[in-house]
Amino acid sequence: MRLLLIRHGEPDYEKDSLTEKGFLEAEYLAEYLEGEKIDKIYVSPLGRAKDTAAPTLKRKHMQAEECGWLREFPAQVIRPDKGHKINCWDFLPQDWTNVRDYYDRTLWASTELMKEGEVQKEYDYVTHEFDRLLEKHGYLRNGNVYHVKRANRDTIAFFCHFALECVLLGHLIGASPMVLWHGFCAAPSSVTTVMTEERRKGTASFRISRFGDVSHLYAKGEKPSFYARYCETFDSDELHD
Fold first, then answer.
1. DSSP secondary structure letter of residue 202
2. Which of 129, 188, 192, 239 is the most core-located residue (most Cβ within 10 A)?
């Protein structure tokens, strides 16, 4: 089975929709996905994800199933340098990297700061719903791998959000989402592909074959959006914090 994790196009967060560039990105993405075999599409309930999915659904004459747990990962904490609540997936590197537990897949949500934000509760909810969906498609989680109830070559697409995408990826490959949130960057409208490997009959694992692909933009001469990144050098006029 193949999973396509698709981040929404360049967002207009105030309107929970897309910018003019974001709508263009969604069209280019749809043109690319039109030629891809996709068997089922799931979408976040947030407007920016649904607006990104709309052109693809139209081209492929498909309908998406809306899943509440696919919304952007909502847990918030009081970040050390801010003094007020902020997304748990947006830390300064000098703060989170000094806490060894954040690198551990089982301990990252157990720090006092994360406990106060009930981050583990939200993480468990999302991953539980994700596993329920995978079982529906034939793959039942068994420890850190998946029991193959119905082997298939279906392609399942998810139109969602970057932080949520990292939660799903971390769950599949056994990694702390803190490392993925801060060590990877998926540009708006990018596509990440994850595939099953069944090296012994009945047992499957998931493997990332491409991350954050925006070749559909390059094919049209469109530069990827800067959203999700911070300044390359501090003396630039790019986003600092």
1. T
2. 188
CA distances from 175 to 62, 102, 132, 144, 228 (A): 33, 10, 20, 11, 20
Distance CA 167, CA 181 (A): 8
Q: In the block, which residue shows the tokens 């139209």?
A: 58
Contacts 24+ apart (CB under 8 A), 53-56: 53/6, 53/26, 53/159, 54/26, 55/26, 55/27, 55/29, 55/30, 56/26, 56/29, 56/30, 56/157, 56/159
Q: Do 41 and 65 contact (CB within 8 A), yes or no? A: yes
**Which H/E stretch holds residue 121?**
helix 119-136
Task: Mention every residue, 6+ apart, whose C-beta is less than 8 A from residue 56.
Answer: 26, 29, 30, 33, 34, 41, 62, 157, 159
Instruction: Give the C-alpha separation, 240 to 222, whole Å.
Output: 24
Q: pLDDT tier at 157 (50, 70, 90 boundaries)?
A: very high
Q: Are 222 and 241 in contact (CB under 8 A)?
A: no
Residues 42/64, Cβ–Cβ less than 8 Å: yes
Contacts of 227 (CB under 8 A, 6+ apart): 10, 11, 187, 188
Residue-wise pLDDT tens digits, 54-101: 999 999 999 999 999 999 999 999 988 888 899 999 999 999 999 999
114, pLDDT greater than 80? yes
